[in-house]
Amino acid sequence: MANNNEEVDILQMHNLRPAPGANKKRIRVGRGEGSKGKTSGRGTKGTGARYQVRPGFEGGQLPLYMRLPKLRGFKSPFKKEFQVVNLKRIAEVFPDGGDVTVEALVKAGLVRSGYPVKVLADGEISKAYNFKGVKASASASKKIEAAGGSVSEE
User: Where are the residues of the annotated region Disordered (predicted)?
Assistant: First the structure.
C-alpha cells in the first residue's frame, strides 16, 4: 500500500503514447539519395523507376481496348421484346376457337411468360377467336375479324 504522502500515477487516456519505435517514419519516395538511399524503393531502372505508368499500358504493344472492336449502334433500354405467335400455330393448338389469353398461350407452350405477345398473320383460321391481352399485326387483325373473332389489348 502507498503511503499518504506518495503520489500515485493513474493511467489516463490523454497520457497514452505508442511504444518507442512503434511509429516508423514514412519513406518519402523519389526525393533523392539523402532521404532514403539510391533507388528509393523503386527497384532498378525500367519505367516504374522513372515515372508512373497509366493503367492498361502494355509497354507499347497495341492495348486491349484498341484491339477490341468498337461498340457500334445503340440499344434502347426501353425496347419491348414481343413473343410472336402465328395464326397457323393457334389454329393447331386451339382447333375449336374461343377465348385465347396470354395465360392460355403460355400453358399451351406457344410463348414464354413475362413478355408481351403479338399475333402474326402466317396461316389461315376458320373459327372465331377472341384474343385478350395480346397485340396483333394489321393483317392478322383482318383475318381474325373476317373469321368472326376479335382482338383486345387489355
Answer: 1-55
Q: Name the stretches of the chain with pLDDT < 70.
A: 1-4, 40
60 CA to centre of own chain: 32
Please report the domains of the chain, with CATH numbers, ordered by start residue: 28-71 (no CATH), 83-152 (3.100.10.10)
Quick one: pLDDT at residue 35? 74
Q: Are 110 and 85 in contact (CB under 8 A)?
A: yes
- Summarised one tens digit per residue, pLDDT across range 2-20 is 566 778 788 899 988 888 8
112: left (phi over 0), alpha (psi -120 to 50) or beta: beta
Instruction: Supply 101's cell numbers.
Output: 389469353
Closest CA to 98 of 119, 136, 127, 135: 127
Using one digit for the tens of pLDDT, what is the confidence trace for 64-89?
999 999 988 898 999 999 999 999 99
